[in-house]
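Slide 14.
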Amino acid sequence: MGFSSANPAEQAVPAPHARIALRIDVGTCRGTEQGVPRLMEVLKRHRASATFLFSLGPDRTGRAITRIYRERAARGRITPMERYGLKTLLYGTLLPAPDTGTRCRDILLQVAEAGFEVGIGAWGHMDWVQHAATADTDWTYEHMQRANERFAEIFGVPARVHGASGWQMNRHAYRLTQRLGFDYCSDTRGSQPFVPVVDAELIACPQIPTTLPTLDELIGTDDCSRDNVDDRLLQLAGADAPAGHVLALNAETEGMTFLPIFERLLERLSAQGKVFLSLGDYIAAAGTSELPRHCITEGAAAGVGQMVALQGDEFLL
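Slide 15: predicted structure.
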């Protein structure tokens, strides 16, 4: 997809200071059915491109209900009920887990037909978030391969991009991004696109790290509230970045409760001359021929309840 994918007025390659790639995680059946259509409407209205990363298998969110309430209570931001709704919080326990890829196939196809880039977030969002960081080769391969096969079954083409749910990865998963043929991935948090090095092993699949905090991470910190969080993100998005910025969204938050905040943010960023890109357009603008090599590490990110994959130091031979 070129720069005209969902924004036909933008033909020229935007300068780095103007670029903001939108990475939209879709982790639940509810988020797919309700959040995705709302986000598409807003994005179209603002002539913004984006990449939707789907969870394509059973929605078993309810199996992590204890963890969900513990983390959300500690963070004091959007409540589990706001984010997921009662039915989703029971999926996989008291209610059967719906197969998102099957049940929401038409919506997924509508996203692609509308010109937005589509990719893989996980086979099962909550399974990946809970287990991927410590999973072995077999578990990792099964989950990534099943998602890859389902994606090709739905869209008729192989997936070009993988964006790990919750920025949870392991060394086997990095190797599989190469083996499964992804053109680029967005599995990490960091400052600029890079070629990942995992335990001194070069992975021939560029990473597009998330550079900005999410709305949910900012609310409740440094006097940020739902009323003024866009002020803080506007400030952060104005900071220099070698290739521009990447903002992560969730269909379950920005597509639902935070939709008015997200639309307000789009309006204000647009007024500052920002151009909203898919991950594919973003990496095309940045170029891949001379990307730096960086080690992958694991660490804390402000407002996130668990360790995440991070862009580490540059790997110098």
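Speaker note: Residues 1-10 have pLDDT under 50 and may be disordered.
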